[in-house]
From TrEMBL:
InterPro entries according to UniProt: Host-pathogen_enzymatic-act, WD40/YVTN_repeat-like_dom_sf
Stored PANTHER family: DIHYDRO-HEME D1 DEHYDROGENASE, PROTEIN NIRF
Record keywords, A-Z: Signal
Entry keyword annotation includes Electron transport: no
The protein's name: Superoxide dismutase
Cleaved signal peptide residues: 1-20
Origin organism lineage: Bacteria, Bacillati, Actinomycetota, Actinomycetes, Streptosporangiales
Annotated source species: Streptosporangium fragile
Length: 300
């Protein structure tokens, strides 16, 4: 016979794993870290880059706990992307570099000098057998062509941007993502709020028709199917855009906002959640300034 006390014990034991499996919706990063980029995977592990020191912090999304696993070079680590080969690609901001880090050990596998002056290497995407980096102050993309089995190249290729995009004062090309058909690249220009399609073979750009909508302060991009998420950092908003198959047009179907947003910059997905680090650009940074990461539902 199962007693009442035993039933209560069984409920407690059975219920415990379910509660433990609930992912935290907010978790802390180190004080003074100044986060910018985020990459997730493989598995439930997220990586965050520091624009202050270039260090990379790795967190387990199941617990929110983590640690610095790769010490920075003293220059920024901004946009991040992981591949399926245990590598993390890092955009180096004012350092003008790209780094590839081993996600198992935190060591730098190799580093590339992309530019030596007037540079702000801001974000990175992996697509079409290459890693592509934006530069927010120079009208170019940097390409790391990947060889057989993802072999890293000896040097980067600079691809000038031509056509519709015109660089001006402030942050220009920022976030980057593939188009839904994977034949082109998408970049958002922060200072104009425009979205552009880029021919990766030539660097020619055309403006994506958003039906009159703009993406002011556009920062990190995330493509899921034909849905493009655009972080509008200082607006504390994520624009959700339904794109045409070729990426030449789209419409803003909704905007996500959350009271926990404090100038989020970049975005990555895990399950049915979107994770965003709060960069807190409007808060003067100090060694004791707290930073965190928030998760919101995709709403599908």
């Amino acid at each position: 016979m199962i007693t009442t006390a035993l039933c209560a014990l069984l409920v407690t034991l059975v219920g415990a794993p379910a509660r433990a499996a609930t992912l935290p919706e907010t978790f802390a990063l180190p004080d003074g870290f100044q986060p910018e980029g985020i990459a997730i995977g493989p598995g439930p592990y997220a990586y965050f880059g520091s624009r202050a020191t270039g260090s990379v912090y790795r967190a387990d999304l199941r617990t929110g706990k983590g640690k610095i696993f790769s010490r920075g070079p003293g220059t920024p680590s901004l946009g991040l992307k992981t591949d399926g080969r245990g590598r993390l690609f890092v955009a180096g901001g004012t350092g003008g570099d790209a780094r590839v880090i081993d996600t198992r050990t935190g060591t730098v596998i190799t580093s590339y000098t992309l530019a030596t002056s007037s540079t702000f290497v801001n974000d990175v995407v992996l697509t079409g057998g290459a890693a592509w980096f934006t530069d927010s102050t120079s009208p170019v993309l940097y390409k790391l062509p990947l060889g057989r089995d993802g072999a890293l190249p000896g040097a980067a290729v600079t691809v000038p941007l031509t056509g519709a995009i015109q660089y001006g004062t402030g942050i220009n090309a920022n976030g980057i993502a593939p188009s839904p058909d994977r034949r082109s690249l998408l970049i958002v220009q922060s200072n104009t709020g425009k979205l552009f399609e880029v021919d990766p073979a030539t660097g020619a750009t055309t403006e994506v028709d958003l039906g009159g909508e703009t993406l002011a302060n556009g920062d990190g991009l995330l493509l899921s199917g034909r849905t493009l998420y655009v972080v509008q950092n200082r607006l504390n908003t994520v624009a959700v855009i339904h794109l045409s198959r070729d990426g030449s047009s789209g419409r803003v179907v909704r905007r996500l906002a959350d009271g926990r947003f404090d100038v989020p910059t970049t975005i990555a997905a895990f399950g049915d959640r979107l994770y965003l680090p709060n960069a807190r650009f409007t808060t003067p940074p100090t060694p004791d300034t707290p930073y965190n990461v928030v998760a919101v539902r995709t709403g599908r």
